[in-house]
Amino acid sequence: MSNQKLRTFVDRYLSGDQSSEVLQGIKDYYLNRSHVWVEALDHPSVFRRFKWIYLCLKHKSIDSSILDIGSWTGCIADGLCQSGFRDITCLDICPKVCEVGSTTFPHLNFVQGDIEEWESDKKFDIILACEVLEHIFDPMAALTKIRSWLTKGGLALVTVPILEKLSSDINPEHITIVTNEQLGKFGKVVRISSRTEEWYACSIRG
């Protein structure tokens, strides 16, 4: 799907059109992405989020089970693996992303699925959802689901960009603004930033 077609669907969605055609059109964009790349952990944006995650997990056992939601091709998950964690599942909506991720990081377990539809038959000690909620229709339902997947004493780490407004001209992939107040209903929120970006970062306890 072209970016222009995505913009058309997003413009309709942001104007209040929640027809099945619009919702499926936006989903299809993510499902059928063909341009997939492997992020570098030393990229300033990626590394800043990874540093926050790493510091939050420094006292967690390396035997902890981890679910990385919206993992893309697995850059952050691989960083955690290099830090000693081994039981890592990467969940991403796009089959091509999972294919590239599995080839690049064969030691990671990739599962193709949509956070808004996927159900887990197990609980996890650690759950990551970095730059995910702004791309989905119902982030509060996703946060409720994430919390329900945590083991007792588990920890979920969630980041979202701090957005002032939604516009397909600014970023057609952003369809939802998640606020500090919304995240605060689930856990402790801090602000983190790189040289060019700023996020809300939320830690949720199981």
CATH superfamily: Vaccinia Virus protein VP39
**From the structure provided, what is the oligomeric state, counting identical versus distinct chains?**
single chain
In which order are the strands of the major sheet placed?
A: 3-2-1-4-5-7-6
Query: What coarse outline follows from CA principal-axis ratios?
Result: globular
Q: Which percent bin holds the helix content?
A: 25-40%
The proportion of strand residues reads 15-25%
Low-pLDDT stretches are none
Q: Which architecture would the CATH scheme give at its second level?
A: 3-Layer(aba) Sandwich
Our count of helices gives 7
- Return Rg in Å: 16 Å
Detailed description of the structure:
A seven-stranded mixed beta sheet has the order 3-2-1-4-5-7-6. The protein has helices at residues 3-14, 20-31, 44-57, 75-82, 95-104, 139-148, 180-184; strands spanning 65-69, 87-92, 109-112, 124-130, 150-161, 188-193, 198-205. The protein has seven helices and seven strands; from the N terminus they run αααβαβαββαβαββ. β4, α6 and β5 form a beta-alpha-beta unit. The protein has 206 residues and is an alpha/beta fold. The protein has one domain: Rossmann fold, CATH 3.40.50.150.
